[in-house]
Q: What sequence folds into this?
């Protein structure tokens, strides 16, 4: 992250924190991609892998929490240093939630619901690709503290939201035409929603990146960005 | 941030995110993405670069007790303080921070004309206390200093009893008519300085026999005994342990209800804890001044940011 601190140990601690978040992000990205693959190809082996790896995501979160607490207690950071640590803390929470969504998708494959039809698989694959792209770009923005890229992620989340709404409409239309597989339809709706939520977490992560250089809280940025919605939605 | 080349999404190379565990070196994301933590990031861009002679932030306050305009100090040929314009507000603590030799103590000493005592010193610009120029030839400097108390880095009680240390000021300034009045002032001052309970049974013992923290509180009691309008403090806690420091900081917070307090400190945490306004000095210039809450969260000047985060000093 920022360099040039008189205390090299502090620079080192910030860099380690930063590296761990990107590592955690890589793991979550992997989880989302594999969960989407598991659902669209109805692959139980992949789904099991996702669920097993979920504990690694949680371990990252626990370790990062502890490291941040230690850093705050020992260094009493202010100004940009403090904002970076707060942004890291919020970003870690977003990644952990994105990981949870991936786990939910994987559980669907191991549950009692049926395999999605080709149309639903296509929609899920498309949404999954968009969600992975957004998450990857938001991690890149985090890695470089790139506000321009973060702005782009926030704008592109809108596209994912629209694709989600369209996919859901198609799903409901198919369900009305053939109501025999209602359980699979409901589960498919949850999967599409989970992918849309992953996009939201990527967008929130981008907002946390922007909060480092701005005076505003990420929640306040929602009103400043055309077409933006609040973090909680 | 600005030196990061912006690429369009289409042109941006796909990157690999490498997970530390369970995925080292694997390609994640379609097309193979290689996102390795860069470990370094361009500095925040929202900060103002240094502008010669210009102070960032609000230098003026409403109903100021001190109003300083274009104050410069020369020690012989050395230009130690350059055109500082700054108000000191009532009932608040102004903290002055900055690296050694930045001019913060020099500025503090201008406020009660302590620089007058240093040969070869020249002070220019205007400093008014309650609207009156403190360099006015009609003004009695002894009376001026009675209105502006000062607490120094090292506690410096007189080699007299605790009682006499506090009674000295009111007596020479003729503030008390009778012994009862004087007793009252000594008692009140020691109470306000949070020392009364510890010394009430040994008022005739020497002040130098107290602990460092107690001595510093005795000096504060001595200062407030003459009912000043402003209290200047030059690193008042740097010779004290953390417990004594906490007591003095608590006392500063209580005293600000009645006095304007200007404190020079090398501890940024102390400035953040005790003050309502913070002024950052650098190489004889006042670089930035503003509400403490703002300065320590969103400093506007690059030099302030660098100093408070420990990036130079």
A:
């Amino acid at each position: 992250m920022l360099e040039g601190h008189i205390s090299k140990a502090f620079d080192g601690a910030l860099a380690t924190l930063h590296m761990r978040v990107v590592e955690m992000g890589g793991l979550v990205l992997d989880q989302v991609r594999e969960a989407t693959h598991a659902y669209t190809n109805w692959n139980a082996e992949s789904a099991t892998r996702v669920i097993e790896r979920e504990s690694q995501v949680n371990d990252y979160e626990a370790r990062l929490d502890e490291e941040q607490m230690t850093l705050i207690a020992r260094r009493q950071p202010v100004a940009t240093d403090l904002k970076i640590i707060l942004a890291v803390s919020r970003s870690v929470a977003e990644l952990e939630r994105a990981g949870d969504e991936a786990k939910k998708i994987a559980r669907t494959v191991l549950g009692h619901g049926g395999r999605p039809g080709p149309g639903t698989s296509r929609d899920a694959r498309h949404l999954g690709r968009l969600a992975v792209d957004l998450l990857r770009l938001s991690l890149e923005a985090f890695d470089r503290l790139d506000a321009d890229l973060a702005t782009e992620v926030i704008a592109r989340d809108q596209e994912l939201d629209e694709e989600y709404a369209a996919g859901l409409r198609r799903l409901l239309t198919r369900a009305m035409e053939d109501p025999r597989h209602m359980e699979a339809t409901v589960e498919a709706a949850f999967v599409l929603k989970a992918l849309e939520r992953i996009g939201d977490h990527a967008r929130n992560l981008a907002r946390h990146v922007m909060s480092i250089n701005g005076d505003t809280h990420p929640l306040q940025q929602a009103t400043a960005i055309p077409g933006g919605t609040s973090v909680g939605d | 941030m600005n030196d990061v080349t912006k690429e369009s999404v289409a042109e941006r190379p796909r990157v690999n995110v490498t997970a530390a565990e369970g995925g080292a070196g694997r390609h994640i994301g379609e097309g193979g993405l290689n996102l390795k933590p860069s470990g370094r990031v361009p500095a925040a861009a929202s900060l103002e670069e240094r502008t010669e002679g210009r102070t960032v932030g609000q230098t003026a306050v409403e109903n100021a007790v001190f109003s300083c305009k274009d104050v410069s100090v020369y020690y012989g040929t050395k230009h130690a303080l350059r055109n500082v314009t700054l108000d000191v507000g009532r009932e608040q603590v102004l903290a002055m921070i900055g690296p050694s030799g930045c001019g913060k103590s020099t500025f503090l000493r201008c406020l009660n004309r302590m620089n007058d005592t240093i040969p070869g010193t020249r002070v220019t610009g205007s400093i008014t206390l309650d609207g009156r120029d403190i360099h006015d030839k009609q003004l009695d400097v002894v009376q001026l200093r009675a209105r502006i108390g000062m607490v120094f880095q090292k506690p410096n009680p007189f080699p007299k009893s605790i009682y006499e240390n506090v009674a000295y000021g009111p007596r020479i300034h003729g503030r008390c008519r009778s012994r009862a009045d004087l007793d009252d002032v000594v008692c009140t001052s020691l109470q306000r300085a949070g020392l009364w309970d510890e010394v009430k049974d040994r008022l005739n013992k020497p002040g130098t026999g107290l602990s460092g923290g107690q001595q510093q509180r005795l000096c504060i009691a001595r200062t407030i005994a003459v009912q000043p309008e402003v209290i200047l403090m030059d690193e008042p806690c740097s010779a004290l342990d953390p417990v004594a420091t906490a007591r003095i900081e608590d006392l500063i917070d209580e005293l600000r209800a009645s006095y304007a307090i200007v404190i020079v400190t090398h501890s940024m945490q102390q400035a953040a804890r005790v003050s309502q306004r913070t002024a950052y000095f650098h190489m004889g210039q006042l670089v930035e001044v503003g509400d403490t809450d703002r300065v320590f969260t969103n400093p506007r000047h690059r030099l302030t940011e660098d100093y408070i985060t420990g990036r130079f000093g």
About this structure: The longest strand of chain B covers residues 64-75. Residues 277 and 292 of chain B are 5 Å apart (CA to CA). Chain B touches chain A at residues 1, 4, 6, 9, 15, 17-23, 26, 28-30, 33, 35-46, 268-269, 272, 296-299, 305-306, 308-313 (CB under 8 Å).
